[in-house]
Amino acid sequence: MNYASFTSLAASTKLPAQPVDCNMAGPRVGRNRLAALLVFAAATEFMLVAVAAYLAGGVYLSSPDPAKYIPEALFISTLNLLVSIGFRHYSRIQAQPRLVFLWNGASGVLLAFSFFLSTMFLLRIAEDYSRATATAQALSVVLAVLCVRTLWFSLLKTAVAAGLIDARRIILIGDADHCQPFSARAKATGIRTIGSFEFPIMSAHSSVRARPDAVQMLPDARQLVADCRRLRADDIVVLISQQDVSTGLTLASALSDLPVDVHVIPVGWIDLMPMSRITQFGNMVTMRIFQCPLTPFNRAIKRAFDVVAAITGLVLTSPFFVILPLAIKLDSRGPVFFRQTRHGYNNEPIRVLKFRTMAVMEEGDNFRSVSRHDPRVTRLGRFLRRTNIDELPQLFNVLVGNMSIVGPRPHPTAQNELFAELIASFFRRHNVKPGITGWAQVNGYRGDTDTLEKMQRRVEHDLYYIDNWSLLFDLRIILLTLFSRKVYMNAY
Predict the structure, then answer these.
(1) 233-254 burial string, b = 16+ CB within 10 Å, else e?
(2) In a domain, 344, yes or no
C-alpha cells in the first residue's frame, strides 16, 4: 500500500475539513495574539504577586516601616515568575485542564517561597522577618495566583471559542475509527484537529525489515512528514493499535524531524492514561499504569489511627456489649455473634463479626442478601440493622488487623464471585483493608444489591476512595457515618 492511496480523514471519516492557507497568515496572527496574551497574563501575575506580598507584609501586619517590604515583595514576585517560566506553566496552558493550571500555580508559589526563605537565611537577613509575615505573604500570594490564573484561563477559552486566538492545532495519524472519537474529545477541551492521515502499513519488503540496524524509515514516511510540515501543527498524535506498536515507534522517530510535540497513544488506553505515570524503575524507565493505593508510611498512619479509634470505640460502646447479648438471647434462639467468611485485603478470606440479627446462620453459597421486610430478620435485628449497631463487633476485627475503620465494605464471598464476573476491576476494591464504614455507604449505596447498577455505583465509590485516600478523607467519612442521613438509607 503506497502513500498515494492514503486520504485525509477530513474526507474518509467526515471530520470537519479545515482549509489550509499556504501562507499561514491566520495561524500566525492567532499565535501572535496568543503569545501577547500569555506575556500579558504573566506580567499581570507578576504585578499582583508583588502587590499581595507587599500588602501582607507591610500593611496587613501593621509594620512601622512598610517600605522595607518592597524589595522582598519584588524578589518573591521575580522568583514566582522564574518558576512559572522554568516549568512552562503558561506555555502549556492550552494543553492543560484548569485544575492542573491552578495546582501548578499554587505549588510554584510554595517552591518560590522555599527559595526566598533559604536565600534570606543564607544571607543572614532574616532576623527581622517573622514567621507570621512569611505565612501571611505565602497565603496572600497563593490566593492572588489562583485568582489571576482562573481569570486568564477563562479569558483564553473565551478568546479561542470566539476565534480571536488560534486553538492548539493537532494532526492525527491512525485508523479513522480511532481518530474520530479522539478528535471529538480534543475539541471539547479547545484543541482543534487541522489534519488527519491513515496509519502507514508496512509491506513485507519494507526497508525496516531489511535493515534493522540502520536508520529506519517507513514507506512513504518522508511524504507524510512533508505533508505534516506544511500544516504547521503544534502537536502530532499517533494512535497505534497492538499490531502497530513497532511501526508506530518508527513513525514517531521520523516525525521527530518536525518542530512539534509528538504523542503516541495506544488505542483503548485513553482512559488509562490519566492514571499512568512515567517512572524510574531500577535503571529502566517504565509506564506505571496503577500503583499500590497506600505507601508503607500511609499504611502505618492508617493502622495507628485504626487502633486508637477501635480502642476508643470499644470503650465508648462497652455498655452495648453487656446489654445486647442478653437482649439477643431473649429475642430469638441462637448465638449472640454471627461470623461470616468474607474477602479482605488482597482477596484473603477473613471472618467478620456481627451481632446476630437473623434467625438463620447462612454462609458460603447459601448466602442470600437481605431485602426489605425480610422474614429472616428478628424484631431486635431490624433495630440493630437500621442503626448500624450490629456492626460494632467489627471493632475487634479492626484491632486484630484484618479490617479498618474506613474502607470498602466486605461482601460475602459468594456475592463477590458473582459480581466479579460482571463488573470490571471489581476486586481492585480489595487493594485496601475492608472497613466498618466507607465512602459508598455514606453516599447511600448500601443494603440490597438486587441490580447490577446498584453494585456498580457502590464499586465506583469504593474505587474513588482508594484512589483518593487521605487521613482527612477517613475523618470526613467517620463524621458522615455519625451524622448523615444517607448512611441509614436502605438499612433493613
Answers:
(1) bbbbbbbbeeebeebbebbbeb
(2) yes
